[in-house]
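Recap from last week: sequence in, structure out.
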Amino acid sequence: MLKVENISKDYGPVKAVDHLSFECDQGEIFGLLGENGAGKTTTFRMIMGLIDSKEGKITLDGKKIDYTITDQIGFVTEERSLLTKLTVEEQVKFYGALKNMDDDAVNKALDEWLTRFDILEYRHRKIKELSKGNQQKIQFICAVMNHPRLLILDEPFTGLDPINVKMMKDAIYDLKKEGCSIIFSSHQMEYIEEFCEKLVILVKGKTILNGYLEDIKQEYGIKRIEIIGDVSEDDFSKIKGIQKIEKRNDKWVLHIQSEEVVSKVFKAIQSKKIWKFEAMKPTLNEIFIEKVGGQK
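Predicted C-alpha cells:
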C-alpha cells in the first residue's frame, strides 16, 4: 500500500502541494487529477523520492521511500524519457541495470513484452526510428519489466491508436491483478472512470475532491435524462425543473435541476413509443469542470 500523509511542498512563495493525503491499496488503481500546474508532477516526484516534502510523509508498505526501494517503483512520464540514439534493447537493458536486474531477466522480460505489444521486430531499432506510439510502448516496458510494487502512470496512452490502447489497458489490468498499486493521471476523464475507484482532484496544490468515484457521483445525483423515441420538444418543454433541452442526432438530452424531475418527464411521455429512457448521473468530466471551474 502507498500511503501519502499530509504532504506539502513550496517553491519559494508558490505552494505546489498543500497538505495532500491519500492511500492506494495493493491491487488498486487510484486517480490523481488536476489541471496543468495543479501539483501532480511535484507529487509524483515526492513519491519517487526525487524531492523531499516540506512536511508529512510517504510510505510504501509501511516503509519510507528511499533509494533502497525506488527500483520497485515504475514511472511512465507524460513526456518521453528515452535515450533516442540507443536501440530498444540497449534502452531496456539500461533501465534493467538501474532496477538491479541481471541480463537473463532483462532478456526474458524484453522478449515477453515485445511479443505482447507486437513489436518484436523492433528489438534492434533505434528509439528515434520508432513512431510515437511505439516509443510509448518501450517507455511502458521500461517501467514495468520488473513487475513493480507501485506504478505511476502519467498520460500513459499518449500517441497510441485504439488497438494499442487496448493492448496497454490489458497490461495495466494484469499488473493490478498481480497486486501492483497504480497511480493513474490523465486529462481524458473516460480513462479515469474506467480504471479508478478512488480519486483526488487538485487545484493549485489543494485537494478539492477526494473519495470513491461512485460516492462522489451519488452526491451529485441525477443531472440529465437521455431519451430516444417518438417524442418532440413540445412533450416536455413546459415541465418545471428542466434547465436545458438538447437534440443530439436521434437522442434528446434534458438537463435537469433535481431527481424529482425524472418522474415528471416519464409521466409526460409514457404513452409515447420510447426506445431509451435513462436518468444519468454526471460524468467525471462534468464534475471536474464544475469543481475546477468553480475554484476559478
